[in-house]
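Figure 6 in text form: structure in, sequence out.
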């Protein structure tokens, strides 16, 4: 099968004659991340400004870390986030 520039842009064909489109980054995913990070920054900003009775993130983590189950849960969350952000989909830098 020959790959030329138009096939790369359109996608690739699979057995059966149909084409599979290339993955695109949906805008809704970026908006969800923007809202999540905005909420975290707003929460921390309100907590540090002492405008409301909202605890800071360090206060919340301190309460969670009091208990061994909380420590293990945060460790599991940290491992899960690291896997999804850094390892999954990772390619060796020197591979062609």
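Output sequence:
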């Amino acid at each position: 099968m020959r790959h030329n520039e138009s096939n790369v842009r359109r996608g690739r064909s699979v057995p059966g004659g149909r084409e599979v489109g290339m993955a695109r980054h949906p805008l809704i995913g970026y908006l969800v991340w923007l809202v999540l990070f905005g909420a975290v920054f707003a929460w921390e900003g309100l907590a540090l400004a002492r405008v409301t009775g909202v605890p800071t993130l360090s206060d919340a983590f301190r309460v969670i870390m009091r208990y061994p189950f909380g420590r293990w849960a945060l460790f599991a969350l940290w491992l899960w986030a690291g896997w999804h952000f850094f390892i999954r989909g990772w390619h060796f830098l020197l591979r062609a």
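Caption detail: Residues 5-9 have pLDDT under 50 and may be disordered.
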